[in-house]
Design goal:
Length: 145
C-alpha cells in the first residue's frame, strides 16, 4: 500500500555536507568507519562518503571526461543535461550516460524542472581517500638497508 502523503524533499532543500569523500575499502569497512564517525560525535559528521570495493571500480567510474564533468558542475550547476553537454562541447547522449552513472553512485543530484533534469553536485569539495596497506600474507619482511 502506497503512502500518498509521503513526499521526498527536493535535492536543493536537503542539507549536504561540504565534502564528499571517495574511498576504496570493503563495504563492511566503510560501514564500520561511518558508524565510528557518527558515534564519536554525530554533529561533527562533515563529509559524505562513497566507497568502492576496488581501485578498478573507482578507475572505471572516474574517467578524465567524468572528472571534467564533475569540475564543471562544481563550478556551476547546469540548467539541464543538454546545457551541460553544450558547455562541455560533448555529445548529449555520452554526457547523459555519464551523469546517470554519477547519479547512481550518489555523486550527482538533480533538480527537476518540468521535463528536464538539472544536474548539480551538492558538495563544495570532492576528496579521494586512497590507502594502500601491506597484505596479511606479506608478513614482517624487513626493508633493504
Amino acid at each position: 500500500m502506497s503512502n500518498d502523503n509521503h513526499t521526498t524533499p527536493a535535492p536543493e532543500a536537503t542539507r549536504y555536507p561540504e565534502t564528499l569523500r571517495i574511498t576504496i575499502q570493503s563495504g563492511s569497512a566503510a560501514f564500520d568507519a561511518a558508524l565510528t564517525e557518527v558515534a564519536d560525535d554525530p554533529s561533527e559528521t562533515d563529509a559524505a562518503v562513497v566507497s568502492f570495493e576496488t581501485a578498478a571500480g573507482l578507475r572505471k567510474l572516474l574517467t578524465d571526461r567524468r572528472l571534467e564533468l564533475l569540475q564543471s558542475l562544481l563550478d556551476e550547476p547546469a540548467d539541464s543535461i543538454t546545457a551541460l553537454a553544450e558547455r562541455l562541447e560533448r555529445n548529449y547522449s555520452v554526457v547523459h550516460d555519464d551523469i546517470d552513472l554519477l547519479a547512481d553512485t550518489g555523486i550527482v543530484k538533480f533538480r527537476h524542472a518540468g521535463q528536464s533534469k538539472a544536474p548539480f553536485v551538492p558538495y563544495e569539495t570532492i576528496e579521494f581517500d586512497v590507502t594502500i596497506t601491506a597484505s596479511a600474507a606479506a608478513g614482517d619482511t624487513e626493508l633493504p638497508v
